[in-house]
Design goal:
Layout lengths: L1 H27 L1 H4 L19 H10 L7 H8 L4 H13 L2
Bound molecules: heme C (HEC).
Heme C binds next to α2, α3, α4 and α5.
């Protein structure tokens, strides 16, 4: 019985996490990348359909990843915690 409870709590947590990712993305990223990640006019390419978003976001934060326009990303990612970035990255990787 206890196990069942733990499992359902974990299930609920992952649902909440996915919802958080979408919410954070909508608030922090959609203005430039579009609500579906397909907007390419600002960043030069769509982020939907990609993978490894966490490594890229962490790289922007540390200054080890990025192109000519990385300053635009750095402003956004440095204001977010590592756990928020990880939640957002999971959401971004799920965009097709
Ligand atoms: C102010 C506009 C702006 C905002 C807000 C923004 N981005 Fe970006 N994003 C850019 C630009 C411009 C680039 C290209 C930067 C470069 O030259 O490396 C980029 C690049 C990226 C890339 C790398 C694409 C690749 O494969 O090279 C990812 C992933 C990304 N953004 C995700 C996000 C996420 C997630 C958020 C929200 C936390 C976000 N961006 C918020 C403008 C923005």
């Amino acid at each position: 019985m206890k196990k069942l409870l733990v499992l359902s709590v974990l299930g609920l947590a992952s649902v909440l996490c996915a919802a958080d990712g979408a919410k954070l993305y909508g608030a922090k990223c959609a203005e430039c990348h579009g609500i579906d990640g397909k907007e390419a006019s600002i960043s030069g390419k769509a982020i939907a359909g990609g993978s490894g978003a966490l490594a890229k976001l962490t790289g922007y934060k540390k200054g080890t990843f990025g192109g000519d326009q990385k300053a635009l990303m750095q402003g956004t990612v440095t204001a977010l915690s590592d756990s928020e970035l990880s939640t957002i990255a999971t959401y971004v990787d799920s965009l097709k």
